[in-house]
Fold this sequence. Notes:
Elements: H1 2-14, H2 18-58, H3 65-84, E1 102-106, E2 113-116, E3 120-124, H4 125-130, H5 134-149, H6 152-159, H7 167-176, H8 182-187, H9 190-199, H10 202-216, H11 224-239, H12 241-244, H13 249-252, H14 257-269, E4 285-289, E5 297-301, E6 304-309, H15 314-330, E7 338-340, E8 344-347, E9 350-354, H16 357-363, H17 367-392
Amino acid sequence: MILAAAAALFCLSSTPTMERIEERAWQDQTTRAEELHQDDLKADVDVGAKYAVEVEKHCKMSADQEMVKRVQKIGAEMAEIANQTASVATWGDKRFNTFNYTFKVIEDSEPNAFSLPGGYIYVQSGLMKLVESDDELAGVLAHEISHAKFRHVATLQRESSKITLIQLPIILAAILSGSPNAGVAVEGSSLAGTALMNGWTVQAEQAADYGGIQLMVKSKYNATGMLTLMEHLGVLEQSQPQYYSNLGIFRTHPPSKERADSMIKDLKQYGIPVERSKVSTSFRVIVKPDDKIPGAVVLTFAGKNLFALAGNDALTRADEVAGRLNHFLDTTPSGYEVVPTADGVIGGRNVLLAFAPEDATAQSKTIPQLVKESVTNIRSALYTVAVRIWTTH
């Protein structure tokens, strides 16, 4: 009886309970899902590697080692964050996808950057001439990393039945390579039209922008650089529309009011003030020696002189004034907020500058004359800021 009871107890204890069955099924399902996930990532890497060979076969790679090292250094920093951080994907593959990212520079005058599946990222030398800080470059790379991390090419292929995963990188590589013959190669293809018009949408760009900001806030770089670079591109598109509307970054990364507004909203979400002067020389008051007045310094904005200061403490005063002016300009004020005083200028409710007698003496002018000229020039700087921002916003 004892043996029979023990045998019965053994049988009962060895019989799988419903909880165990469900747990085992869940484990099997999880394992299978992870296997499929890894298959997807491997497919991205395989496709990207294949077409990276084609890109590098038809495009001239940059021999500028300093430029290449700069891209690779900042790219590696952003890639490390991407592979350690789960980001929110508003469009694309929402899983935590990691890749062994590579960064290369193509010798091409067009300002562009693109990524192939699997983390193969290319920056064209024309874009390197456009970026004005490491913050802006980090923003570009974070944006492109996000395209790869969110598997936007695979998502586009899945949502566009006319495009296969094999065909799409050919189209993207041709368009993004900057080759003079790229237009001829793809314009006649209905696939190109589908990819550009129905595929790489504002949704994808905004998702990559948001993904980029998520990476930037965890880095040492200022995420405002993403916004200012897009504003540079907007100005460039407006100033040279015929050239830049054909191919390149304006077809695949169009500057737009929607993107700019979303980006500003995202920056505010993370508590990042939009201080353009900190990431862009185009939005910064710069102090430099005055070529016309020995010992004097001149403050400039967007390549134009605002006013000059002289005397033994001219440089110290100029640096202080530049700081106040940059803070004022970062608020994107209106011209009426610039008000003259007896010896200087007020911006909003704060004193921006006060001229000293030595400033007038060095320039053979009166202080009221200097005040009048500086007010005009500062208001002109405000207009320049407004134009650069309005172009995109």
